[in-house]
Design brief:
alpha/beta, 7 helices, 15% strand
Length: 222
């Protein structure tokens, strides 16, 4: 049985309660105003996003991570770790990814100087992709990357002590591989983003050393 809204409001007033103000109707995200938040990933390689995360090694020195995400698959495409990361490093990371995966339709980011740099914007446009900058002070518009950054911090950075930058690179890359190939994602039906991903180069078979090759090539004496 339905309850009359006006009757409920009258009872609220009689009891001395404050009647909630009526909320105006708001249109949702599908407005044609060019807002970055209205860009939704529709397929793999459609929208990538990237952002920086900071941490420290045991000696107190800062290092930065550049995280690149495919928003549709949730796969972390790369994490570049270094003491300082500039716009030239952004181009370097993207160029490596473009060679392997091709250029995405859009690349979403905040308005950090490394992302809005003229060289970065011109290079992205030249390779056929488009930039999608979020509104200043609106990190929720880059929600996929913000969610990944939070997982990276909660599941790894907050529980690890890195004694060197080299150690940080190895451990973070190992976690990235686990995140992509093993860790279940609720948004993907509790499957990892890239369960059949190719092995990390360090895990590939290494060529035999010259000494080993020479021994193998020697004729057997009878």
């Amino acid at each position: 049985m339905g309850v009359n809204v006006k009757r409920v409001e009258r009872i609220w007033r009689q009891e001395g309660l404050k009647v909630p103000a009526r909320q105006p109707k708001r249109s949702r995200l599908w407005l044609n105003d060019g807002s970055c938040v209205r860009l939704r990933p529709e397929r793999s390689n459609h929208v990538w996003s990237y952002d920086f995360v900071e941490a420290r090694t045991h000696d107190g020195r800062k290092f930065r991570m550049l995280n690149v995400i495919d928003e549709f698959t949730r796969e972390c495409l790369a994490i570049r770790v270094d003491r300082k990361l500039r716009s030239s490093d952004v181009i370097d990371v993207l160029s490596d990814l473009f060679i392997v995966r091709g250029a995405p339709g859009h690349i979403r980011s905040d308005n950090g100087p490394e992302f809005v740099a003229k060289a970065v914007r011109e290079w992205i446009t030249a390779v056929g992709a488009r930039t999608a900058f979020i509104e200043p002070g609106s990190p929720w518009e880059n929600g996929y990357c913000e969610s990944f950054n939070s997982k990276l911090r909660d599941e790894l950075l907050n529980g690890e002590i890195f004694y060197s930058l080299a150690e940080a690179r190895i451990v973070i890359e190992s976690w990235r591989q686990h995140y992509n190939t093993k860790r279940p994602h609720s948004s993907l039906g509790y499957r990892p983003p890239a369960p059949a991903a190719a092995p990390w180069p360090a895990a590939l078979p290494q060529p035999a050393s010259p000494a080993t090759s020479n021994v193998a090539d020697k004729p057997t004496m009878h």
